[in-house]
Specification:
511 residues; mainly alpha; two-stranded antiparallel ribbon
Length: 511
């Protein structure tokens, strides 16, 4: 085989080009991937332990922060990256094959049933997020859902969506190249990007295009002809959810001719071996260094700083080299990033806007007031992150798009509901048990120290002296500090009032 060509790719209109990354003096910090070691001026304290837990989980509880401080930072990262036990399925329907509807009423009932099951799948996943503890896997599962997208409104089959969700979890920190080979014939993806109708003689290029443009390498590294050739390699996969929940390969629908993809010849195969031509496509794509840079850039945005125009190119390049030298093993890359001086640099603490999932699940976790997965999923949808239904094939844009004149007031109202139990305009939930919540803190009898512990848990950066004094006065209800007693009359109400003020603050939206 010949070497891979560097022929400039044609660009498609309507797609946003990735902003250039920062190098040299433009970098936000010169801290690199060297391991971070605590110093007297930057100790391993609740601020930095919370930073790590905020980014790698759906926000920490006070108990999680306290436990984290009994470990070294590297030990905590190792704990976060441990493989958890596989969660049980939401119900037996995930393996059930339904009867094929034949009449219009049967089709309507089938569609309504699938929508209901999809909503229960969202609730199941939100529950997993809440229960994910000190572990990164559920965060990575959502990361992949936003990167390798499928929309339930298109897929329609909840069993397929469940299978894809499991796939994301299994490969959360696995081998990226093997992961993409599995995605090639993932049923939800075959349905979403028309792989099931991609046949010899009538190739469909949707998946082949996104495989390269959005999932693995980005624009500028392939040609339109490469897309056509990759699509030919990927022909032959079929779906019929009324006979099997697995994708099947039928050589009769496969293009068995030879293909020239990215300057390489893929010999066509007419037997069942034709199903491996998609693996050949992935293998050739992953020989290009652009793949590692592309996915490491995404990981940087997810865990360090989500401003797409402020991505540190030097860090991404180092991570990409590490990924390639480790045969596309993702775990070592995430581990190195989370243990690095760059990750713990002050400029990156509290610099990210909470996604709707982090915001909603974090409220349930931090206030021990879980309203149920269905309610959380509804909250996420209200503030524009509907699980299993990203807005388009590029996923959620994130960063400042998470906050708008519509979503910000909603976020404040949702957060207030966890504190007071009431939701403006109707609706309620069991709120935080304010007295029990306060008594979890080590210094709950000392108003000054208690407030500092609360602020460190709920806010990612220190507040001003004047603002802290305001919170303290609200918590005390005007009483002198030495009279503070959580069991005193009105203390519970005063705590709720203070918490409402904190969760309404703009920096509560950060992590």
């Amino acid at each position: 085989m010949s070497s891979i060509t560097d022929t400039p790719a044609q660009s498609r209109s309507g797609r946003r080009a990735l902003p250039p990354m920062l190098y040299g003096s433009s970098r936000r910090t010169l801290a690199g991937l060297e391991p971070w070691n605590p110093t007297p001026s930057e100790p391993w304290d609740a601020l930095r332990a919370s930073h790590l837990l905020r980014r790698a989980t759906y926000l920490p509880t006070y108990a999680a922060v306290r436990e984290a401080l009994t470990m070294q930072p590297t030990e905590l990262v190792d704990r976060l990256l441990e493989a958890p036990t596989e969660p049980p399925a939401p119900a037996s329907w995930v393996n059930e094959i339904f009867n094929r509807p034949t009449t219009q009423p049967e089709k309507d009932a089938y569609e309504a049933h699938n929508k209901s099951l999809t909503q229960s799948l969202r609730a199941w996943w939100a529950d997993l997020m809440v229960a994910s503890g000190t572990n990164i896997i559920e965060k990575m599962t959502l990361f992949w859902h936003g990167h390798i997208t499928s929309e339930s409104a298109v897929v329609k089959v909840p069993q397929y969506l469940y299978q894809q969700n499991v796939l994301f979890r299994v490969f959360a920190l696995g081998n990226f190249r093997d992961f993409m080979k599995e995605v090639n014939h993932d049923p939800a993806m075959l349905r979403y990007l028309d792989g099931e109708i991609n046949t010899g003689g009538n190739p469909n290029e949707n998946y082949a295009r996104e495989l390269m443009e959005l999932f693995s390498m980005g624009e500028g590294h392939y040609t339109e002809q490469d897309i056509k050739e990759a699509a030919r390699c990927l022909t032959g996969w079929r779906l019929d959810e009324f006979t099997s929940l697995d994708a099947t390969f039928n050589p009769l629908y496969h293009d068995s001719g030879n293909k020239t993809f990215m300057g390489r010849t893929i010999v066509g195969r007419s037997s069942l071996d034709g199903r491996f031509e998609g693996d050949d496509v992935v293998d050739i794509i992953f020989e290009d260094a652009a793949v590692a840079r592309f996915i490491c850039r995404k990981l940087y945005l997810a865990f360090v700083y989500n401003n797409p125009s402020q991505v540190d190119g030097a860090i991404v390049d180092e991570l990409a080299a590490l990924l390639r030298s480790n045969n596309y093993d993702l775990k070592i890359v995430v581990e190195t990033l989370l243990k690095s001086a760059h990750f713990f640099d002050t400029v990156n603490i509290g610099a990210m806007i909470k996604s709707p999932a982090v915001f909603s699940v974090g409220l349930a976790r931090q206030f021990a007031a879980h309203p149920g997965g269905g309610r959380l999923a509804d909250d996420m949808r209200a503030i524009e992150q509907n699980l299993l239904d990203p807005p388009n094939v590029a996923g959620w844009e994130g960063y400042r798009t998470w906050i708008s004149t519509t979503t910000y007031p909603l976020r404040k109202s949702i957060a207030e509901r966890f504190i007071t139990g009431q939701y403006p305009g109707g609706g309620s939930q069991t709120p935080v048990d304010a007295v029990a919540w306060i008594k979890q803190f080590d210094n709950y009898r000392d108003a000054e120290k208690l407030l500092d512990e609360i602020l460190t848990l709920l806010l990612p950066v220190k507040v001003s002296t004047a603002r802290r004094a305001g919170y303290l006065q609200t918590m005390l209800g005007g009483a002198p500090v030495y009279e503070w007693n959580i069991d005193a009359p009105n203390s519970e109400l005063n705590v709720r009032n203070m918490l409402v003020r904190i969760v309404s603050a703009p920096d509560f939206q950060l992590h």
